[in-house]
Amino acid sequence: MDLQQIKQRFGIIGNSFGLNRAIDVAVQVASTDLSVLITGESGTGKETFPQIIHQSSSRKHGSYVAVNCGAIPEGTIDSELFGHEKGAFTGALSDRKGYFEEADKGTIFLDEIGELPLSTQVRLLRVLETGEFMKVGSSKVLKTDVRVVAATNVNMESAIKEAKFREDLFYRLNSVPINVPPLRERSEDIYLLFRKFSSDFANRYRMPAIKLNNDAKDLLTGYRWPGNIRQLKNITEQISVIEQKRDIDAETMTHYLPYHSGDNLPAIIDTKNAPGGSDFNTEREILYKVLFDMKKDMNDLKKLVHGMMEDGPVVAQAEHSQIIQKLYQDDEGGFVPESTVQSVPNFTPADDHSSIEDTEEFVEESLSLADKEIELIKKALDKYNGKRKQAAQELGISERTLYRKIKEYKIEG
User: What predicted TM-score, i.e. pTM, was given to this entire model?
Assistant: First the structure.
């Protein structure tokens, strides 16, 4: 089957590179018996890829067993996976086959593999290496021929460092890694998914499908979607059921997008009603705040120069020193570039007022947002001695965004 046929068969929507790459790897590895580890955030649709692998393999006529390891209590998970003998524990009234025995000649999908207890990880490692296992309460060795596909949204490297997951098991499972990209990295697919969900809900609830105007589309694709496809589907259903009008604008859309620190909501920003009140939580707002503060300071300097004609050079010199000190002062996340301070003229006593010129002719301040971003980032990094996490918090942006900006502008430090 080609890529489009696979998407149609398994209901996959999207054309992003990361998604296509994940599907392509799944199809290529299907003909082998290698173990596969699927990684990705919760809600990205990882459960679809084991089915692609199974249905594209020679085991497609065998059993396909899906197990959510995080949903099984630690005390019974060994029995669920490997079976038990009668009388092995209280309540074991008869022999029971485990999932590995049921999936013989087929495929077993172990979802949330990072939640497995360490004792169960030892048993699983033996199955992967030798194909052998023992039921709980039995000393008899059984064999199974099963293809193992696992998935997790846990950072496995961190779990290994914290001794929550065995390193040897990780490398045994990770023979072929498949990463399912989060929805925020598939911006071109977001509106396609929205249209599919809105059409499905329109048919289910027998009502016209909801539609978005251009601003609402921009807001939809610009949101970070921490819950990924699952969250997008839920919000689409909410709007379909709750809203009376079928044409949705950006203002209506904002009511359904929960706020998360670092989210990108570029279309409408209501600083009065947004969480945090008047705090500035986006890069653009920080830049605008700095520009407005700079404009105010320039106006103060202009008034100072004109005031020299009335108050005399001594008073003006004192006021000049106060303003210079203010320009150097940090303002809780806002930084004034040094170029602003350097552009302030030096005041010298003069009897002839004709020598005083308007400060506008001395100030050559760039209004480029990119320049201000670079200045802000450098100031924040200097303030925290290059510690990017604290610098990102100071700027009110995510650490991921700060890394991207540093790379984009080639900032050293």
Answer: 0.63
